[in-house]
Design brief:
mainly alpha, High-Potential Iron-Sulfur Protein, Chain A, about 20% helix, 2 strands
Length: about 100
């Protein structure tokens, strides 16, 4: 019979697995996903439908949004609070855009 895993081992394995996954690139948000469509997400802010999204302001992109967690202008994009586990394009935009302070 094998010994059960101790709490210490479980915590170590959890932290190790999490740190190993942190370095992997996250998948990009698909514009056709239901959440993306509901938020009006586009990977390039130049393609925002201003009739459907009248709150859009020229120059607003994911990289200058308070919800964006990546580096500004990073071509790989970065994580966003509204799309957990996925990466948005730095030049993207959605209706949740809020100017970074």
């Amino acid at each position: 019979m094998t010994d059960p895993i101790s709490r210490r081992q479980l915590v170590f394995l959890t932290l190790f697995a999490g740190s190993a996954l942190a370095g992997e690139p996250q998948p990009k948000v698909n514009e056709k996903d239901s959440l993306s469509a509901a938020l009006g997400y586009v990977s390039d802010a130049k393609r925002v439908d201003t009739k459907a999204s009248p709150a859009y302001q020229a120059g607003s992109t994911c990289s200058n949004c308070s919800w964006y967690q990546g580096k500004a202008g990073d071509p790989a994009g970065g994580p966003c609070t509204f799309f957990p586990g996925k990466s948005v394009d730095a030049n993207g935009w959605c209706r949740m855009w809020n100017k970074k302070q």
